[in-house]
Amino acid sequence: MERPSERIAALRGAIPEGVALLAVSKFHPAGAIEDAYEGGQRLFGESRVQELAVKARELPGDIRWHFIGHLQTNKVRQAVEWASVIESIDSLRLLRAVDAEARKAGKRVDVLLQVHVAREETKFGFLPEEMEAAAVEAAGMEGVRVTGVMGMASNTDDMERVRSDFRKIRGCFDALKAGVMSGREEFAVVSMGMSHDWREAVECGSTLVRIGSDIFGERV
Question: Which residue, 33, 71, 23, is CA-closest to 55?
Answer without folding.
Answer: 33
